Amino acid sequence: MRASWIVAAAAVALVVAGSAAAGSPKAGASPAFSNTPLIATWDGGIPTSPNAKSTGDSEPAIAFGQDGRMAVDGLAWLPFQVNLWTGRFGSTPTFFGGMDQSVPSSGNGRVSLGDGDADVDIASTGTLHLADLDFIFNNNGGFQLGVSVTNCPKAATGPGGCTTAVLDTTQDDRPWITSLGKTVWVSYHDSGNSTLVHVKKSTDDGATWQASGDPVVAQGSTTGSSTFNNIQGPIVADPTTGNVYDIYAAGTPQSKCCSADFDNIYVSRSTDGGAHYTSKLVFPGASALDNIFPSLAVDPANGNLYATWSDGHGIWVSTSTDQGVSWSMALKVSNTATSIMPWVAARNGKADVVYYGSNQAQDDTSAVWNVYDAQSTGWPQFTVKRVSNTPNRVGAVCTNGDACSGNRELLDLFEVAEDPAMNKAAIIYTDTTIDTYTSSTGTHELPEVVLAFEK
Fold first, then answer.
1. Would the pLDDT of 17 be above 80?
2. What percent of the chain has pLDDT over 70?
3. Of all helices (H) and strands (E), which one includes residue 278?
4. DSSP state letter for 271
5. 47: which of 118, 423, 430, 438 fits an S-S bond (Cβ 3.0–4.6 Å)?
């Protein structure tokens, strides 16, 4: 979720108006990627430099359609909007527009805005689906969170050609989206009551939605480990089988409720379109594994699964070749002292696991960070490549979500996707060294997103 102080300031204005084995990843030649900042602009009167009138962006997502069309999004820092670009691998994408500046919601005096969290998908139909966490401001001064999906048909050239459906308004968090043909799934957290995972499903390409099965409930002791105590990664659909998977980190039951260690990694599998799930323990840890989200990818060529997570020091990966029934021993694939925010993509037997890495401690105010890609063309061999040609951050990084009091300019994640034509990685990450903005409290870092293509 984007920086809370910006949200609060705008709200006031609106209301008034297995076991682990250490791997040995090799170091690859670097730099091995091109790097292009994507700068969106607006005329909001807040001075930014050296890129004038920048919106700022962070926590970006990326997706490819089967035809090679690419979509990239970023959470704007200054206005309430999700910035969206579209294009193809190897070329600078075109700015599609600022999305969800106004989200439809019922209720007298309500104002709903997007830009809390976002995830993007391009269905095989060509429809672009943008899942967004919305900020809902009530006329009595109340505030709540909701989830919406914006659907843009292939012919759309900007936000005006898209439609938005509100899925939930009952205090939600961190939506993820995936699709198979005209069937689309959105998963998100219940942030108000149980932190259980809710799933909505559409069978008409995002036009209408209904409730679907929950990946966490009805899992016996796993449900007990996860209620009030889980952090969910992406929901993923497998085109080779039609299976749906959801990854999450959960704690260990205590005598009174639950721990907050998030020291177990689970993947739930559905073989009936998301109506019912069976959960499997991928990794039983001994330390917190929520730095921040675990990630999951399916190889669309063979159905193999890759799960990844961070213990704060290393990035770990496990694979399944039997549709999530069993999982391999976990391998450490990073080679920096501090490694956080992993994401994974896979295609045609190749896997790319990206992360932010530093050789200083995470809370070191002088820590130098870069973006890395642990790449495999055959399990269990990995080669680590540096993605960023210059450091993408200097300073501490907080991964405690809304509990952070500062050092959260990177927000909570970044993503990698595989181009279906080139079978190469495209990575969208956050860089806090490019721009600044000036407010009444001084000059501050203004994050921007950078698109990197594998050479």
1. no
2. 92
3. strand 278-284
4. S
5. 438
How many C-beta atoms lie closer than 10 Å to residue 205's C-beta? 19
Cα distance between residue 165 and residue 181, in whole Å:
19
Q: Which of 58, 65, 63, 169 is nearest to 117 (CA)?
A: 58
Tens digits of per-residue pLDDT, 393-440? 999 999 988 889 899 999 999 999 999 999 999 999 999 999 999 999
Q: In the chain, where are the structural domains located? A: 103-212
- Give the whole-angstrom CA distance, residue 390 versus residue 342: 19
The contacts of residue 235 (CB under 8 Å, 6+ apart) are 176, 177, 178, 185, 186, 187, 199, 215, 244, 245, 246
d(CA 54, CA 49): 8
First to last CA, the chain: 32
The one-letter code for the residue type at 125 is T
Q: Is the pLDDT of residue 14 over 60?
A: no
pTM tops 0.90:
yes
Asked if residues 76 and 115 have their Cβ atoms less than 8 Å apart, the reply is: yes
8 Å CB contact between 426 and 416: yes
Residue 352 is inside which H or E element, if any? strand 350-358
Residue ranges of E strands in 102-237:
111-113, 118-122, 128-137, 143-152, 163-168, 172-180, 183-190, 197-202, 210-211, 230-237
